[in-house]
Amino acid sequence: xxxxxxxxxxxxxxxxxxxxxxxxxxxxxxxxxxxAQGSAIAPFIYTLF
Length: 49
What we know:
mainly alpha
């Protein structure tokens, strides 16, 4: 949780709010790849990349 708080402070102080969508997409795609690993939908997800 501390990392998220520090990241938010960095974005707020430096006015780098444009980085927020990039970070969110990276986290969602990373989570999707981790969750799909070893499941039945893995071949369908890996064809996207």
